[in-house]
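Standup notes
- DV: blocked on the single-chain target, sequence here:
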Amino acid sequence: MTSLRLAIGFLTVLPVAPAGEARMGPARAWFPLVGLGLGGILLGLDVAAREGLPALVVGAILVAALLVLTRAIHTEGFLDCCDGLFGGYAREERLRILRDTHVGAFAVIGGAALLLLKWSALAGIPDEARTGLLLVFPCLSRLGMVATMALFPYARERGLGTSFQEGRTRWQVGFGLATAVAAGVLFLGGGGAILLGIVVVVSLGLGRWITGMLGGMTGDTYGAVNEVGEVAVLVLGIALFSAIPEIFGAPLW
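- DV (later): unblocked, structure below
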């Protein structure tokens, strides 16, 4: 279970990662499962907070909790990508900006939009779909990261993301996909299967666009894929439930 501990230690604040160097490639198989665990924590907080707080405050608490639980690692990557992808005009310049520790205007604007979308979506999930969406949205978004790791090259010779290129096998992607499919269908029925397809398409489309600009992916761009995936699942999940609520909560089997 070393790879599971690596996944938990990398994706959360929990200090469970084994000491010493280890290949991170196998850890990606567990990303959706770790996301499901994060969803379970958010659901518990939601149930407790909604007893005495209005929906908007509960939404803000959930956003803050997710930032703390993940050390804001994915959000930081998203902010860096906003500066790098929109602030640079050539591949080398964009890669340089991605490593710059300063925060630019594009990061501020993008970060504000991201948090506003996530906060309003978490506050606005319909009661009938709330349990399922809170559990599943972090799981599906982390499948998007696994998909981009598998299909797109890495843009740098060295960097945080290079560790995920070591020890890679196809079973890791298959296991992550199976976990996401099981969670989506179990907790959201047919709607979960549709949202899984949407997040994969969104993630791969974003990965293709980023690869065209950088020549590949980086650790920051993986984080951006996760953040966009989370918002996509929440917003489109709410829209889908509003349009065809009967497909939620009815498992496909």
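- Follow-up: The chain is about 70% helix and 0% strand.
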